[in-house]
Amino acid sequence: MIRRFRQHSAPPKTSPTFRRSPTILLARALFLAWFLATLSLFTAAPARAEAPENGADSRTVIVGGNRAYPPYEFLDADGKPAGYNVDLTRAIADVMGMKVEFRFGAWSTLRNDLTEGKIDILQGISYSEERTRTLDFSPPHTIVHHAIFARRGTRSVSNLEELRGKKVVVFRDGIMHDSLVRLGFGPELLLTDSPAEALRLLASGRCDYAVLASLPGMFLIQQLHLTNVVPVAKNVAAEKYGYAVAKGNHELLTRFSEGLAILQQTGQYQAIYDRWLGPHEQQRFPREKVIKYGSMVLLPLLVILIATAAWSHTLKRRVEERTEELARQVAERNRAYEELRLHQDKLIQADKMATLGVLVAGVAHEVNNPNGLILLNLPILKDVYQDALETLEARYREQGDFLVAGLPYSRMRDEVPQMLADMSDGAARIKRIVEDLKDYARQDSVVRREPFDLNAVAQAAVRLVDTSLRRATTRFEAIYCTPLPQVSGNALRIEQVVVNLLINACQALPSSERGIFLATGYDLEAGEVRLTIRDEGVGIPPESLGRLTDPFFTTKRESGGTGLGLSISAGIVQEHGGSLSFDSPPGQGTTATLTLPLFNEENPR
């Protein structure tokens, strides 16, 4: 199992004055366990692992290093090896009595040189299961965190998966190159020989993102003055970083691992770490200073706070008492104001409805007059066309096609009858709508009881609100059960209820893609006829569902609702001996159900 370490976490020191963390202690314990196991292995094979008697090795160890991976390893201005890895290797060579020679070059070349035996050891390489097939690794001497870099203003990403479809640059043969290839990123990756070259390509706009180690990336951004490049995901991977040799070279790897353990115990490792990597870590305020300065500031504040709390406690009680008294007064005034406003709204609405009835009657009369002329003249026009058709056909046979009203006769002879039929249907529809409006606006001072067809009432209501339905939805469906038993009552008043339910359904839809569905049916055993209107709207909160038919209760007060429509509708249905109920499961719209008793000749009621 791979554990996450603090970025660039250094292994602990033995001195109590040095800082320790659970991650470092765990790394140290793992290292010591591995070292003891390796040591026992080589003790069992003395001929292979025995060191020279004087503790020194006359053979020079060739150590490979990346020429452009600061601050871990790089060639300085004089072309000499420098960096954290270089100082660490030199210190290990001193304590182990080894001679080392550094050979720096391109990273991909160094990996090939190691497997071909041209160099003996790599001083800085990230661990992976895939690399263990050809390499043996020492315990990690640090943890390298990797980040995603981008130009300022580029959309941020949070992980490697979000880079799909983007132009990504990565360090050739580095651990992130291997990881991206495993994830399916292949030929589309842009590869460079150094992190510096990758950042330059990113800064110039030749790619969208770069995936690099965090510390070298930030180091090079400052060194190259790439002010338009920033990290957008600061920790997408944490990799163990240490020494590696060709598969089977256990003796050399053991000596380097032993030297690293000695440096950790003597404190030399921490000094090297602090010199190169410490300045780039987030600065922490010492705990002792936090306690010291915190006590100097907090103790006086605590005394002041206690005194203030004692003084304010009494004041708080007095303020609470006065606040409660004012709240009661405000609540009483608000209640009185709300009642006054609701009564005023009721009067305004009643006046508007009366005015609307007069207006509808007048408009209906004005529309009926010209529409009657249309209905009267259309049959005559049809006869005229039929009488002229024989002459037009004769001319067509003798002279060929000719223009009628600017269009070919061969086309018009099929379209004119259809146009006349459409005009006739349209005029009839106008007449039907006007009659529905006149019936709807008619005031009935006496509740009439007579049998009527609920299907006809529903169809008339649909015609009245046709414009609202077309504006609200593209998915209106009506299913009428036939034959449907008759019910008893006032058809106009029930029509008013259905109109109100349809208008409410239209207002509940957030977009025209949502639907409204009307259906009728009956239940002979229960002795009732049923009409349901279901919408796919926003629904009704559970706490409001039981109050829908209360007078002046509305959830649409801001858009002009008065809360009278459903209250009046419920009263009409109750007068007819029926019921009006609502069901609104969360997120599934609302279903309104209207039930009326079947017509009974013996008892019309």
UniProtKB/TrEMBL annotation:
Alphabetic keyword roster: Kinase, Phosphoprotein, Transferase
Domain Histidine kinase: 362-600
Annotated Gene3D superfamilies: 1.10.287.130, Histidine kinase-like ATPase, C-terminal domain, Periplasmic binding protein-like II
Stretch list, region Disordered: 581-605
Record SMART domains: HATPase_c (SM00387), PBPb (SM00062)
PROSITE patterns, sorted: HIS_KIN
GO MF term list: phosphorelay sensor kinase activity
Keyword RNA-binding carried by entry: no
Catalytic activity: ATP + protein L-histidine = ADP + protein N-phospho-L-histidine
InterPro entries: HATPase_C_sf (IPR036890), HATPase_dom (IPR003594), His_kinase_dom (IPR005467), HisK_dim/P_dom (IPR003661), HisK_dim/P_sf (IPR036097), Sig_transdc_His_kin-like_C (IPR004358), Solute-binding_3/MltF_N (IPR001638)
EC number(s) from the headed UniProt entry: 2.7.13.3
Keyword set includes rRNA-binding: no
PANTHER family attached to this UniProt entry: SENSOR HISTIDINE KINASE, TWO-COMPONENT SENSOR PPRA
Protein name: histidine kinase
